[in-house]
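Researcher: For the annotation table, I need structure tokens for Mitochondrial import receptor subunit TOM7 homolog. Please keep the output clean. Sequence:
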Amino acid sequence: MALSQGAAERLSIVIDIGKTIFHYGFIPTVLYMGFQKGADPGMPELSITNLFW
């Protein structure tokens, strides 16, 4: 099934936006999820300063 020129163009734009969102959102999302889970038992508490240490 072939896409029309307009549909292919819109699909390309949506894919590009999706790539950009994934590119800039992956690391912050992983950090957020890690802070929400918390530290494992016996490990030091998680804090934002631990990211820089």
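Researcher: And a one-line annotation?
Model: Residues 40 and 46 are 10 Å apart (CA to CA).
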